[in-house]
Please model this.
Amino acid sequence: MVAAIVHGKTWWGKKWLDAFIGIDEENRLSRGKSYATNGLVVKLKVEKNLIEAQVQGTHWLPYSVRISLPLFTKEQQEEIVSVVEGSPAILAALVNKRLPQQLFDKLMERNIALFPSSWATLGEADCTCPDWAVPCKHLAAVIYVMASEIDKNPFLIFSLHGCDLLHLVGDFSDGKLESAQRVPTLENLLAAADETQSVFDDNVLESINLANISDLSERVNLMLADNPPFSLTNFHRVFREICGRWKRHACSNFDAFTATSFQYMGVDVAERDDDEIAVRLCAPFARFSNFSISLDANGKLCDAYGDGGKLNLMAGKAEPSPAERKRGRRSTAAGKSQDNGTDEVLLALLVNILPPKQLHRLCPEVRFLHYMLKLTRKLIENGAIIPQLVANGEGELLIRWTPAIFDDEVRKVVHAFTSTCPKNLVLFNGGYVSSTEAVNAIVNSFVLAHSTICFPLGIPGNNAEDELQLMFFCGKPITDSNGRGHAIGNWLLPLSLHKKKHHVHLLVDEEDEDDEEDDANFSLSILVSLPQFLAPIPFREALAHEQDKISLLGTASLIVDHIPEMSAVLDGDPKAIIPIHKFTRLFSNILPLLRAMGIQVILPKALAKIFRPRPSLSIDAEKPVEFRQSFFGLNNLLHFDWKVAIGDQRIGVEEFRALTEKCSGLVKIRGNYVMLDGDEMQSLLQRLEKVPEKMGPVELFQTALAEEGDGGDVK
Model:
């Protein structure tokens, strides 16, 4: 997958680079960018306002680069803190690692420059190379690398002036922000559960209709922002492509691999219902009265146990020591857990091949795995799995794939599986995990098994971008460096809003119900449901009561990202006024997206039904009609009056034509809200231009049938 590499993706990252545009001694900047892109900045250290780096050039020893920025005075830092703390909208953006334009503008009004305006205002910069140019290509390489670091973490631009916002801003200080944004650990998620009440029941699993799970792939992709800053390339494009390949090929590839694998054993998968073959296929599990699987430190399947003894799923696999078994991991010569995906694949293969008619011969745990594999395959095929960022015990970052329970149907199905999950099925760190986490762990294992077959040679490459792909799609851990974990977590945040204790509502209302057409406006306000209140309360009031203020600010920031006018609401205005010509995009694109994230959008009654114009045909006879006559025997011609129907209202064709020339999108016509789509309106007008003013009975009958069939109105 070849993708363009970009340094300075965000407006604040670009602003950092702007100081150096136009300063290019003999192509030094472009060569420095190439150095940065190729990973030749081998060491980077930022301490207060000093940047130190090692850059590998043509010489065998790397060159040393030092760059310093001017420090803010104490008075300037106090001014910055005052601006930040005085605006919940600014706080909310910073919580999600975004630098709001309004903060930059307010500081500029106070003559506080966050970014250098030119090379001369940068401070000091030097390099140990012999190049006389300033900047040399090594300095330029560090400048580009810093743009990417500032992309991920805009707090860095303040730190480079000696202003530590995490310490100075009250809502962030004492580790509040870092604690709220700490990546959840597998140890906490998979902690040994209390006695569970779930009871395995085949009837419950048989009654679940997986066909009710709809395709969520486009919804998931829309919820994730394009071109996220934690990757030099557009990782969202990579994400869409690989998930699309999973959706199209993972299950069929796995079935083909299953059939091929068992052919070597002399078993034809197509004949697995044959009694003799079925007995052979059930043999690995049939002799056990109970079955369990163990997860390693990365949450991946490492061992299987039957009746308390370890199963030899993979020939020649060494027995773990008691200490390793307690930790739920398998040792290798290097002392690290194996994570090549072999165990997930092998277990999935054995479960995939089980003959349904022979399931009654197997223990409840194996039968449950059979149904879980069916669920996982349905989730993969419908794009109904989402990535969750977690950390292992060594602080490395991991992605595990879980069901997309923000969707009501997926949540209902997963709850049914959870309620009947055998309680001693999944082991981690010497204890059995909860039913909820057991379902998540099994889904993740089966997803990785299908991914291993979908990418039999792995995802090639050895740079940081490929490292991200291996983490997301192959279960490989990566180190959390330079704010990468927070940046990935913020990107995935829209997928997990449903887990928050608070619930945010976006209330949409008509500002003046009597307004017509271009004068119509809508008001938007934010309400919050908190556990301690019976009814939703205004956002600013909720901030004063919510213990997890940072989490609420992060959710509100997502609304502002898509509707910038809402920043004023965060700062105290009761509502934001949106004119109808701007509301069309919100109504068609943004509000459905916010709903998908888990933000409840409450619309006024007038918007409950949006009308689309359709042709309306009124018929009058030129002379009285004797209805006792045969319809086709009528000799009189009939006069047609064509109008445009909008709900129960009708307007003339010329009036409608004039309306379409000055309006588009959502408009208000005679009390009804109507969506005027340009292509649809053009097609409707062309249809109306082609009809004759008079027709005979046969033509009448044909036209009436045609119009009613096309959704027209005939009277």
User: Anything to note?
Assistant: The chain has 28 helices and 23 strands.
